[in-house]
Amino acid sequence: VTMLKLTSKQNCCGCTACASICPKGCIAMQADEEGFCYPQIDEALCIDCGLCEKVCPLLHKPDKHSILNVYGAKNIDDSVRFTSSSGGMFTLFAEQVLNSGGVVFGAAFDGSLQVCHTGVSTMQELTKLRGSKYVQSDAADAIGNAVSLLKRDIPVLFSGTPCQISGLMAALGGTKTDKLLTVDFVCHGVPSPGVFASYLAELEKERGSRVRAYA
């Protein structure tokens, strides 16, 4: 089984690209004892196609990085900037993609306050993607959906960690990417969903009620 070459957790960034690309659906992201999600393979279903290895950003690191121009910017709309984490530029990028009939993917809290990537197609839905979520996000479905949309020539904005962006680009393979805009950020690692769940449980015990929202 190809993915078994990743015998150490240090060789996995949890980007979920392997789970999203598997044609047999035999790779699932499962939490370890610390609450971090890593790929687990159902070997009975694996056909050893090698696609999971091909899209792994840690198995295929670039030999060198391009030198890019760097610019500073911020959203001049105070109401947007004050509800954002880093100047509100994500909202402006997202508006352009949505106005062109595209879909925007980013991290959001679900009904159980777990963080997962989701796609939105309206400005009203965009609110839940704003702001930082300092927890590992499950992006497997989002990466697969983004690739499917791009193959149909539908514009996509995908926001995530550098590792998730690398996984998405690898999953695209030879698909043209002129309709894709990616937004990542300087990342020093992500906290464990397990630790976050424990924190929420402590809050609920302390306050005697359920946590309904987190910001």
Which key features would you list for this structure?
two-stranded antiparallel ribbon, four-stranded mixed sheet, 215 residues, alpha/beta, globular, 14% strand
Could you characterize what this model shows?
It is a single chain. The chain has a 4-stranded mixed β-sheet, sandwiched between helices. It is built from 8 helices and 6 strands. The protein is globular and about 50 Å long. With 215 residues, it is of the alpha/beta class. The mean pLDDT is 88.
Q: How many strands, which pairing sense, and closed or not: the largest β-sheet? A: 4 strands, mixed
Order of SSEs: HEEHHHEEHHEHEH
Which structural class is indicated by helix and strand composition? alpha/beta
Strand content: 5-15%
Sum up the overall morphology in one term: globular
Number of helices: 8
The chain-level mean pLDDT equals: 88
